[in-house]
Design brief:
With about 180 residues, this protein is mainly alpha-helical. The chain has five helices and two strands; from the N terminus they run H-H-H-E-H-H-E. Helices cover about 60% and strands about 5% of the residues.
Length: about 180
Amino acid sequence: MRQQSDYSFESSDPPDSTEWDVEEEATHTRILWVRIAALVAFLVVAFIAGFLLAPRESSDARVGDLRADLRQSEENSQQLEARLADARQQLVDAQAQVEELEAAAGPDPTATETPSPSAEEKTKSYTVQPGDTLQEIAVDYYGDIDYDDFLAEFNGIADTTELPVGFDLEIPPKPETP
């Protein structure tokens, strides 16, 4: 009779394939749960470390500093508004004094009447710059946007939406109506 060694490859019963699959699946499931548990443990440790190491006091102090700066800026703004209101009142008072002095002085007896220049002498010239519109130019020279058509007609401009840069506009004296 042959002796069987401890390291024999001969087996009396081969394992059933379903038993083998169940054991293999159970092993894989245990490995998966161990990995999940390790990942959860790592995340918990990382969260706790982040929470403990977060600079809470410095951000709270920074917010406090910013709030103090905001309060100071608001106070400065109020002081500047008060100074502006005072300056405006002083300007109004000074204008009133000038008007009173002019009214008290009356007309200047030494002033001579000078003839008014003709309309051609009062015509001004303006060179169109990039971004200029007839409306803006009318406001600048006449104080009213409605004079844009008058400027276009006077200068022979048909398309008022496009002014060529460098074009010399003639600015006549302001008429009574646009």
